[in-house]
């Protein structure tokens, strides 16, 4: 008997591991944890400006914003970081109004070097102030048009390696250089990421956790096509946005059998979205998994005071409780009420503290999870062919003014 | 022959209409367009403080924020509006740091009057500054504990009618009072909403559009369980958040046959999320409808200058184009690329201009759409029983310190 097939059955955990190990030889993000950061730190030290404006979009800004937003309130940062991401004129104008451009370093970030939003905004900045080697930095691929511009104008540039995709680039110069400049410890960042790297590639706890989770997501993808990340801290708002890009753009693909795949990411913030999205999770269709992210130590002891408000004494049980305890109890209550239903898959990630290591570890873990899910799904996590058609149509519209 | 059944087949458009007309007699939001705003405006005029801090969460803030965010950059508003929504201590602390509390009016908004987040934050404010009739306003139901507090302290209060749900309350005192205080024309707001009201209840264009759209959503709810609102302006970020609550909390319900219903709302912003979520829409599973919202006139003529940047001349086709044209062309290119695929349901809403009327019309239309969808789904759009369990668990945890 002869038998021929082109089915792609479920892969074993071991095969997933060896596929990822193989992929690590040509997909660049895995090994960013081994980078030498000396040049980044020396450059950072040389920056005199107080305002740092990153001009970029998508993968060029979201990871940096996620880390900055998470850490900025507990660090004594001497410089301020801003992001110009969109072509919305109101957004550009209102952001620039509050920044002294004469005391600003502009960091133009584009992997391809020809991102239309980024270059358009940078052109506009050029009409407001002279951009030169003293106030401009470029981060791009080595052979890009943007790097050609940098060289022609003797502007310093850092490289985005060809094999590091935009949404996987937070631990490259894209994220590390702006973060180092504002005073975040980028060695600690890489340390946090490397711990997950090591634990994964020695098939330790991180590996076991990720493979199990990814397998569940894929095996139940037709029942649960939506993955909700429910972060119980406003500091994680940037992380949520970064996760949405990472997950959506990496996993929304056509697989090797020409079948459309995709898990839809949703990022919500607790307790705010208990008053907005939780009802849908609890009573709506069973099409969602929920990952709750908690922060163990907020480094903040703001307390609800023991004050009697006439009429409102039934709420006195919150008196003398720290807000950080309240928000964590709110998370626990949400988790318990979801788990009581028994038919909503729910996992909980608790971050120890507000530190470089913890946020970097979380982000590296999500990158690994994305890569592993893509392997299970027989798709390429690292391209984004679906957005090219729109770019071509836009160019035609603008060139022909149609 | 006798035949008995308890099926609920698809309702006719006419039956939907008469159901909504019946509902209008006891569901309050529909008739908010007929309110007399004199008292709101007179109170607004009397406010001397420069900073207005709304303490509230969910339906008590999202609608007000949506309108404020949409309008604030094109109005010369003399007062600033802030929102304290979350129990995250970092959020509370960082927001209050930038506000002169001695020049602040605190507006405490809670429909039930005992929202734990709102009262906890208000207690904290009480430890920072004396809250009394000179700097505090309450908006709540007439017989709530919060109103009892207001009366006991001779603090002015406005009423949220019992039959107006939180997420449908933007056109009540909840939204209109804070907006009037900062200088937004609330008669124009109601005018914009009333236009949609009239067109719907005379079975005009609004009615035809909404019923058709709702019917499609419900008939295809098992294929397309996710509805994406893709707003091409950062000004609509607040609208997106408001829509997510309205849609998620109203439609995520158990229907009269005990079957779980729910359409999952996603709000994204263009062009930013072209670099994050569009790939998933275009190549991922066909489980999403897409509604693109465009703003016709941005009232802003910021232009990409005609500047030659060495190396980047291939992008010169953007020179001399206004950013508002660029962003609208980006929207058009996205719409065209989605429509070319022919298997993603996509509709486009174009708002004429940045005005009170236009944002209010859009919001009232979405309220009507939500009510009509709920009728098709045989669910109650106006309750949220799914979040009660978590509240009880939280109270237990806090009372027993478990």
UniProtKB/TrEMBL annotation, chains A, B:
GO biological process: gluconeogenesis; glucose 6-phosphate metabolic process; glycolytic process
TM region(s), chain numbering: 52-71
Pathway: Carbohydrate degradation; glycolysis; D-glyceraldehyde 3-phosphate and glycerone phosphate from D-glucose: step 2/4
Gene Ontology cellular component annotations, sorted alphabetically: cytosol
Keyword terms: Gluconeogenesis, Glycolysis, Isomerase, Membrane, Transmembrane, Transmembrane helix
A single GO molecular function term of this UniProt record: monosaccharide binding
Catalytic activity: alpha-D-glucose 6-phosphate = beta-D-fructose 6-phosphate
Pfam families: PGI (PF00342)
Enzyme class: isomerase
NCBIfam families in UniProt: PRK03868.1
Name of the protein this chain belongs to: Glucose-6-phosphate isomerase
Lineage summary: Bacteria, Pseudomonadati, Campylobacterota, Epsilonproteobacteria, Campylobacterales
């Amino acid at each position: 008997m002869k038998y021929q097939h082109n089915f792609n059955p479920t892969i074993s955990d071991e095969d997933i591991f060896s596929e990822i190990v193989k992929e690590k030889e040509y997909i660049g993000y895995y090994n960013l944890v081994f980078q030498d950061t000396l040049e980044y730190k020396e450059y950072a030290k040389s920056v005199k400006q107080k305002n740092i404006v990153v001009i970029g979009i998508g993968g060029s800004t979201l990871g940096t914003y996620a880390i900055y937003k998470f850490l900025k309130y507990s660090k004594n940062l001497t410089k301020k970081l801003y992001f110009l991401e969109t072509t919305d004129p109101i957004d550009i104008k209102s952001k620039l109004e509050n920044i002294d451009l004469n005391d600003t370093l502009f960091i133009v970030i584009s992997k391809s070097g020809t991102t239309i939003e980024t270059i358009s905004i940078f052109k506009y900045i050029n009409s407001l102030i002279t951009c030169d080697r003293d106030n401009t930095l470029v981060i791009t691929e080595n052979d890009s048009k943007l790097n050609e511009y940098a060289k022609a104008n003797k502007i310093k540039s850092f490289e985005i390696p060809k094999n590091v995709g935009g949404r996987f680039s937070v631990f490259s110069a894209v994220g590390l250089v702006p973060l180092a400049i504002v005073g975040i410890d980028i060695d600690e960042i890489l340390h946090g990421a490397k711990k997950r790297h090591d634990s994964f590639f020695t098939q330790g706890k991180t590996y076991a956790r990720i493979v199990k989770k990814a397998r569940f997501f894929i095996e139940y993808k037709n029942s649960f096509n939506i993955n909700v990340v429910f972060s119980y801290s406003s500091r994680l708002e940037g992380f949520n946005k970064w996760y949405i890009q990472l997950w959506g753009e990496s996993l929304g693909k056509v697989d090797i059998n020409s079948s459309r795949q995709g898990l839809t990411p949703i990022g919500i913030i607790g307790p705010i979205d208990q008053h907005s999205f939780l009802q849908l999770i609890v009573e709506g269709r069973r099409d969602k998994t929920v990952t709750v992210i908690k922060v163990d130590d907020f480094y903040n002891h703001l307390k609800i005071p023991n004050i009697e408000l006439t009429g409102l004494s039934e709420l006195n049980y919150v008196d003398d409780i720290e807000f950080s305890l309240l928000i964590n109890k709110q998370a626990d209550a949400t988790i318990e009420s979801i788990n009581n239903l028994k038919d909503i898959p729910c996992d909980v990630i608790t971050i120890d503290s507000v530190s470089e290591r913890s946020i970097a570890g979380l982000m590296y873990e999500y990158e690994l999870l994305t890569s592993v899910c893509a392997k299970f799904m027989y798709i390429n996590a690292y391209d984004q062919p679906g957005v090219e058609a729109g770019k071509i149509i836009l160019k035609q519209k603008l060139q022909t003014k149609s």
